[in-house]
Design goal:
This protein has 172 residues and is α/β, with parallel strands linked by helices. It has five helices and six strands, in the order βαβαβαβαββα.
Length: 172
């Protein structure tokens, strides 16, 4: 019997601006570099045939904008789901969000913040990569249902892409 594999894509929001006069951290927009990096990562997703079946993002303005730019660039044509549960979430909170994904989704993209993303990769994959802004991690999970992620299966960190490395490779 073949093992069932779910693909979990974890994306840190793109570079945000600190220069705007905004009321809160939650409302910070992307800066120019972030506006360029997010679609680049979307094109990378499309190129590697990793277009998700579902996209879930933090409610923070910078994360939501990142999710929209990535979705447009990769060809994702469904609703983007937002949740406050990913705003500065711990690994346990990330696990809860993942465990509630619909089982018919074979590939999911979650967009959020550090340090939660790095903690999630460490928890599932046993590695602690530095997740710069707009960095994308591809994890493969040996699970049939997303709820099974709560059993803490060992995930494989298949790939980690950072925008500067993608740009250096001449990918576009």
């Amino acid at each position: 019997m073949l093992a069932v594999i779910k693909t979990l894509l974890l994306l840190r929001h793109a570079k945000s601006s600190w220069s705007h006069d905004v009321a809160s951290d939650h409302d910070r927009p992307l800066n120019g570099r972030g506006e360029q990096a997010a679609p680049l990562m979307g094109r990378l997703i499309r190129h590697h045939e990793l277009v998700p079946d579902i996209v879930v993002t933090s409610t923070a303005r910078r994360a939501h904008r990142t999710a929209n730019l990535v979705a447009d660039a990769c060809g994702y044509d469904h609703d983007i789901h937002t949740t406050g549960d990913l705003y500065h979430a711990s690994a346990a909170e990330w696990l809860t969000v993942v465990s509630e994904l619909p089982d018919e989704a074979e590939r999911a993209l979650l967009v959020g913040h550090n340090p939660g993303i790095e903690e999630m990769i460490l928890l599932l994959g046993g590695e602690h990569p530095r997740m710069s802004t707009a960095a994308l991690a591809q994890l493969e999970l040996p699970i049939e249902n997303w709820f099974d992620v709560t059993l803490i299966p060992r995930a494989d960190l298949v790939e980690l892409w950072r925008p500067r490395d993608v740009e250096a490779e001449g990918f576009d």
